């Protein structure tokens, strides 16, 4: 799988799920794992129902929750990353005063980076979720939003 290296505060980390093809490959690993966990290898067995029985969320959903949780921590100074260095504040509207915009992305590695992808998800969250007073209530809010 094509991996890209990104750098954030001097720490390099790998981005594996940077294309739809790579994401699909990762999801296939989870689907094979569900077959293994349920001991159902027949071609007619529904992997989707196995995933539901196991209560396993898709890897994409889990990645999005982790991204949003990290962004919440950054916005509330729970980690040593200052989002203002990577974001551009947008003009407040009547309904949203906390929206942000990522720095302009001209290359693919930045278009799929943490900030570009996460800011779009963050700006689509309801204000009540963003203004949660604890990390646990934030996680509950994004979890409830996923189930609707």
Q: Give a short account of the largest sheet.
A: 2 strands, antiparallel
Strand content: 5-15%
Q: How many domain modules? A: 2
The count of helical stretches stands at 7
How many strand units?
A: 4
Distance between the termini: 33 Å
Q: What is the gyration radius calculated from CA atoms?
A: 18 Å
Q: Can you walk through the features of this model?
A:
The chain has a two-stranded antiparallel sheet with strand order 1-2. A two-stranded antiparallel sheet has the order 3-4. The protein folds into two domains: 1-56, no CATH class; 58-148, no CATH class. Helix 3 runs antiparallel to helix 7 (135-146). It contains seven helices and four strands. Strand 1 (4-8) and strand 2 form a beta hairpin. By secondary structure, the chain is mainly alpha-helical.
How do the strands and helices of this protein lay out in sequence?
Elements: E1 4-8, E2 11-15, H1 20-38, H2 47-54, H3 59-75, E3 87-89, E4 100-102, H4 108-111, H5 114-124, H6 127-130, H7 135-146
Antiparallel strand pairs: 1-2, 3-4
Helix pairs in contact: 1-2, 3-5, 3-7
Could you write a compact summary of the structure shown?
With 148 residues, this protein is mainly α. 51% of the residues lie in helices and 11% in strands. The chain has helices at 20-38, 47-54, 59-75, 108-111, 114-124, 127-130, 135-146; strands at 4-8, 11-15, 87-89, 100-102.
Keywords:
148 residues, mainly alpha, 2 domains, two-stranded antiparallel sheet, two-stranded antiparallel ribbon, 7 helices, globular, disordered N terminus
């Amino acid at each position: 799988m094509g991996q890209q290296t990104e750098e954030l505060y001097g720490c390099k980390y790998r981005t594996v799920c940077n294309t739809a093809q790579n994401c699909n490959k990762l999801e296939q690993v989870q689907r094979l794992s569900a077959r293994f966990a349920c001991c159902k290898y027949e071609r007619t067995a529904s992997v989707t129902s196995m995933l539901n029985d196991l209560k396993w969320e898709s890897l994409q959903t889990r990645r999005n929750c982790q991204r949003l949780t990290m962004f919440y921590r950054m916005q509330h100074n729970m980690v040593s990353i200052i989002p203002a260095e990577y974001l551009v504040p947008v003009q407040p509207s009547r309904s949203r005063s906390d929206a942000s915009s990522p720095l302009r992305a001209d290359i693919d590695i930045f278009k799929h980076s943490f900030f570009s992808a996460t800011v779009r998800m963050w700006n689509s969250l309801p204000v009540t979720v963003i203004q949660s007073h604890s990390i646990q209530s934030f996680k509950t809010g994004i979890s409830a939003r996923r189930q609707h």
